[in-house]
């Protein structure tokens, strides 16, 4: 009986991945139209801790005063001097929030508190154009921002997620994340309000209203932004722009990020379970299957048998069938990677929260 119960839970988990991979092909997203052009936008770029975290200056240089470098009031004099030199050279603006991060000047934080706090303050206090792009300091796009905003403006949406692509080169930990992002981006066609902190778009007045209601919690903040916007009745769309971002290329960096993400997911899907009535399927998968059923997954590992072998076989076949068109030998290791995350990272993330 336990084996059957365990198998049903694992098959539901696998079934959701299969459903997301197949049904995403039936949903439409906003395609970029090069004939649609708009320069009525501002770009908010959070930068704090160290100026050398600002890795996309070359990409941003064409946008001049539309770029606002958002920072805290607790950085060092050397930091401000270097940031002001960059702003003066490229015509950027600088916004200094009154917020002071406890980690200012230290190692790069995996927390979203600082980022979202200074973005919220910038939305409230800086003179911005009609549309706002929230862009991480290591993120670029393959298409001009004018085309992305023009296509978004004609879509009728109030805020938008985009297709995030990781670097192609790197060790195994990068390749695992690359496939993880590919799968995740397909889900955005179905649930476009699942925003990414690396890059998202919104009407400025809409983003201002959303961020006024944001908890500014330490993680899960980008998804919370989209959930709030959706709950407020704003329309979300998914833009088929190609947005490049860097993911951690060391196990240590990946570990710190994923533990924090897992803690944020616990807060979003378990602590804030009241949102279940708007998106019951997402909450059933993320809250029940991924988080609460980690005990059953451990039971399967500690008592191996036909249940575990059958589940792994089905998962392997499903992953290859759905995603082999992305063409990489690393795909065959994806189920093992997912299993490690679900067995180790998820429960530690709960404790971290």
Please explain how this structure is put together.
With 353 residues, this protein is α/β, with parallel strands linked by helices. It folds into two domains: 2-25 and 268-352, no CATH class; 28-267, Spore Coat Polysaccharide Biosynthesis Protein SpsA, Chain A (Alpha-Beta Complex), CATH 3.90.550. It has 13 helices and eight strands. Strands 3-2-1-4-7-6-8-5 form an eight-stranded mixed β-sheet, with helices on both faces. The model has no long low-confidence stretch (mean pLDDT 84).
Throw out a few tags for this protein.
353 residues; Spore Coat Polysaccharide Biosynthesis Protein SpsA, Chain A; 2 domains; 13% strand
Put the structure in a nutshell.
The chain is of the alpha/beta class.
CATH superfamily of the largest domain: Spore Coat Polysaccharide Biosynthesis Protein SpsA, Chain A
Give the helix proportion (percent range): 40-55%
Q: Return residue spans where pLDDT drops below 50 for at least 5 consecutive residues.
A: none
CATH fold annotation of the largest domain: Spore Coat Polysaccharide Biosynthesis Protein SpsA, Chain A
Largest sheet, in brief, is: 8 strands, mixed
């Amino acid at each position: 009986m336990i084996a059957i119960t365990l198998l049903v839970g694992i098959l539901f988990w696998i079934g959701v991945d299969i459903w997301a991979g197949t049904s995403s092909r039936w949903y439409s997203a906003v395609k970029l139209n090069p004939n649609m052009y708009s320069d009525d936008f501002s770009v908010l770029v959070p930068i704090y801790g160290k100026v050398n975290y600002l890795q996309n200056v070359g990409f941003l240089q064409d946008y001049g005063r539309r770029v606002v470098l958002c920072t805290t009031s607790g950085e060092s004099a050397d930091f401000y001097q270097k940031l002001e030199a960059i702003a003066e050279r490229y015509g950027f603006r600088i916004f200094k929030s009154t917020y002071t991060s406890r980690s200012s000047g230290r190692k790069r934080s995996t927390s979203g508190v600082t980022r979202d706090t200074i973005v919220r303050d910038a939305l409230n206090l800086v003179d911005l154009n009609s549309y706002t792009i929230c862009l991480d300091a290591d993120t670029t796009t393959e298409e001009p921002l004018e085309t992305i905003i023009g296509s978004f403006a004609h879509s009728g949406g109030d805020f938008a997620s985009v297709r995030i692509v990781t670097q192609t080169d790197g060790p195994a930990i990068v390749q695992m994340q690359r496939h993880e992002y590919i799968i995740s981006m397909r889900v955005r066609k179905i649930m476009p309000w699942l925003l990414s902190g690396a890059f998202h778009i919104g009407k400025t007045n809409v983003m201002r209203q959303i961020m006024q209601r944001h908890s500014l919690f330490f993680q899960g903040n980008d998804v919370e932004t989209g959930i709030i916007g959706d709950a407020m009745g704003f329309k979300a769309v998914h833009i088929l722009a190609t947005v490049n971002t860097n993911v951690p290329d060391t196990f240590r960096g990946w570990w710190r990020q994923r533990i924090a993400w897992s803690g944020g997911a616990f807060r979003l899907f378990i602590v804030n379970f009241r949102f279940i009535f708007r998106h019951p399927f997402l909450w059933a998968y993320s809250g029940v299957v991924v988080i609460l059923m980690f005990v059953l997954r451990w039971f399967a590992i500690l008592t191996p048998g036909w249940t575990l072998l059958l589940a792994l076989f089905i998962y392997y076949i499903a992953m290859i069938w759905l995603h082999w068109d992305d063409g990489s030998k690393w795909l065959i290791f994806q189920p093992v990677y997912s299993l490690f995350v679900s067995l180790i990272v998820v429960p530690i993330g709960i404790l971290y929260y």
